[in-house]
Amino acid sequence: MVREKLAAAAHARAVSRLAPGSVSFREPTLELIQETSVNCPYCGELIDVLLDRSVEDQQYIEDCQVCCCPIVFHVRITASGRCTVEVRDENET
Q1: How far apart are CA 26 and CA 49, in angstroms?
Q2: What is the mean pLDDT of the chain?
Q3: SS3 of residue 72 by DSSP
Q4: Beta carbons within 8 Å of 89's beta carbon, 6+ residues apart
């Protein structure tokens, strides 16, 4: 049930980022939601996050589950289908 809700939330985020008339995203399904672990750039703690693989290149902010600081996520899907994620603190350029 939780994964279905997360898939629905991921879909809503993907749709809200599209330009009017754009159809360059895939409908998120459970197989397009990927769980991974990243280190918080502020406190260094390893946190588990869910990535939305339905959009090929996306950037968003999510708060750390430990220290509550805003983490900038940059998620890319390569041509081969590999998912890469970069995290940084909000003040890095």
Answers
A1: 20
A2: 80
A3: strand
A4: 41, 42, 69, 70, 71, 72
